[in-house]
Amino acid sequence: MSAPVSGAIDLSGRRALVSGAARGIGRAAALALAREGADVACLDILDCAETAGLIQEMGRQALAIETDVRSPEEVSAGVGQVLDAWGGVDILVSSHGILGSSRTPLPELDLEEWDRVQEVNLRGAFLLLKAVWPAMQAQGGGKVVFLGSIAGRIGGVLAGPHYCGSKGGVHALAKWAAKNGAAHGILVNTIAPGPIATPMIAGEPYRPDMSPLGRLGEPEDIAEAVVFLASQASNYITGIVLDVNGGILMA
Ligand SMILES: NC(=O)c1ccc[n+]([C@@H]2O[C@H](COP(=O)([O-])OP(=O)(O)OC[C@H]3O[C@@H](n4cnc5c(N)ncnc54)[C@H](O)[C@@H]3O)[C@@H](O)[C@H]2O)c1
């Protein structure tokens, strides 16, 4: 990645791939990247047609790719579809995820539930990174943004041990990738959101007064941080965990 360019953020011509783009943070990130000029491939186990349609209405290119991030074959085919269409990937945003059961007492938390959360959150993040890595290397660089969590930093606000463990794993995977990607111009950072009002936490007892700013985060609060870490404005930042949590954690 080259030195910063002064002026507004401009992602024109950048090819982005966003997982979890059907809803929540991934959807907001995909739309914000497109707003700044990027073409966006929207990948999810759910149908991403709505997100892709909104991106096309902005005059950008969009792909809607139905992929289960747990499957190496599906991830490889999904990323392959983007590479065939656009010839490369400049920005990867890994925003898929599941919370798992957050109130099961540890003695009753079975291995199936532990594995289910690791397979989506950590294995899925690894498979996406692995699939875009050769293309980013070949093209001389790229930007990767992982969605970690405050849960991976402080053991959760209300989340369970399986979710916390998976997100700690994502933070560490991102640091490995930042160290090993730097020589290839691949910059890798993690965003650690606090509670954000998305379907993931619907029904969970998070309260606005848990944050010093007096509200839960909105998906757009995270999307703007994604834009920053995907853009030329952050060309000297790699390997960080950016806390976006309304002040719940001040580290
Ligand atoms: N909402 C929060 O409070 C919060 C806090 C911290 C971190 N995060 C993280 O932010 C990211 C986005 O979460 P969100 O709040 O938008 O949740 P969400 O549930 O609204 O969206 C998650 C998306 O991931 C997709 N997904 C789930 N399993 C998948 C699979 N196997 N393959 C492909 N896609 C799959 C879902 O279909 C969904 O579209 C996640 O990594 C989450 O862990 C969320």
Provide the descriptors you would attach to this structure in a database record.
single chain; 251 residues; alpha/beta; Rossmann fold; seven-stranded parallel beta sheet; 7 helices; binds nicotinamide-adenine-dinucleotide
Give a structural overview.
This protein is an alpha/beta fold and 251 residues long. The chain has one domain (15-115, 136-244): NAD(P)-binding Rossmann-like Domain (Rossmann fold), CATH 3.40.50. It has helices at residues 24-35, 49-57, 72-86, 111-139, 151-154, 161-181, 219-230, and strands at residues 15-19, 39-44, 62-66, 91-94, 142-147, 186-193, 241-244. It has a seven-stranded parallel beta sheet, sandwiched between helices. Helix 4 (111-139) links the parallel strand 4 (91-94) and strand 5 (142-147). Helix 4 packs parallel to helix 6 (161-181). The longest helix has 29 residues, at 111-139. The radius of gyration is 17 Å and the shape is globular. The model has no long low-confidence stretch (mean pLDDT 96). The structure holds nicotinamide-adenine-dinucleotide. The site of nicotinamide-adenine-dinucleotide has 29 residues, from helix 1 and helix 4.
